[in-house]
Amino acid sequence: MAKASPDMTGAPENALSAGLRASLLGFGADLVGFGGLGELPAKVREGLPAGVVVAVKIPPDIVRGISELPTMEYCQFYRRANASLDQIVARGAEYLIGLGFQAVAQTREKVGFGEKEDRTLLPHKTVATRAGLGWIGKCALLVTEEHGSAVRLSSILTDAPLTLGAPVNVSRCAECSVCRDACPAKAVSGKSWSPELRREDFFDATLCRRTAEERSLLGFGGGDTICGKCVEVCPRTRRAMKGAA
Questions:
Q1: Distance CA 56, CA 181 (A)
Q2: Distance set, CA 147 to CA 7, 37, 59, 205 (Å)
Q3: Do 128 and 55 touch, CB atoms closer than 8 A?
């Protein structure tokens, strides 16, 4: 039986972690993080002590295109990114299993496709904050230093002894209220996230979904529930896009 992941926060990355990171980046991930999940209920992490989060960035031209309404290009990117993320985490889980560890890929088939559900048992963004990849913005999206909130995520649960990142427990949005002011649904309360808060304490997912359905219909004829306004207006997203230009 493989040993549980030790708390190695701040330690140099071990060979297993470096090899897994390189593999996931090679599979198509843009960001990779490893986080300890021991503080979370065992049932939401399937009894496994660590999480691997992967992210793919949304291209700047796609983000710029949704300044007014979501576009077909944005919709098509979402579909491609979701399929790619499923493949990345499935291959990552296979990599770990091949080394003798337990690993569960949190693919859409495993956790749901998101068409009707407003939450999953263990959101990828929760794994991301435990891995130190970013924090939860006021619009309930992960915000990263590298790409702002212009990322799509997936994750793996495992017992592999990975070198764990330092978890992020404090929002870095500070007094910024851009996403709150721009939200077409008025779903963003403006309250800052912390790990103790429930999503409904600061964000109304039902309002968001309802308005995203309406905007998707207006923007490209519908079929997917996407909006993206909060992604496009986020100052950190815009800063990252400017740097990528």
A1: 27
A2: 27, 24, 10, 23
A3: yes
